[in-house]
Amino acid sequence: MALILLGWLGGAASAQQQAPALLVHAATCLASKKQLPAAANSSLSLGSWTDAESYPGKRVLYVVATSGANRFAGRVYSIFYSERRHREIFDIQNGTTFVQLDHGKGPISFVAPPIGGEDSEGSFISAIQQLDGQPRYTVTGAEISGPMRHTTCKSYIDNDQP
Question: Does residue 103 contact residue 14 with C-beta atoms inside 8 Å?
Fold first, then answer.
């Protein structure tokens, strides 16, 4: 009986939920724009929150990426997400590096202010707080470095945008 219980506990502890496809596709888009590391041996902890209310008729996917088990420092992005003709369209609008002191109990600060200043900071803080206690998913650089089929990825850092 003890062996069965230990086997069950070991299996439960090692089980990792697979990241939702939308989150993996958004992370792949970020990696393709050199916003996330995509080295095969790297790993990231990802979480996301969708805001469908702040911008009428649009969906904003907030993606938070941290390294390893450290959930209190990382990068946060706002990405407009839509679908057209069976294609996913990710339009990276903003991103910045954040730090939260006191193991997630202290204030959130930004290493460099995001584009849009205090308005963007408020949106990012809200998104980070929304993710507190929500599932996080571990992905490797290899998982987010492949080609993006049926996906268009744009970014505010693209030089070819009008």
Answer: no
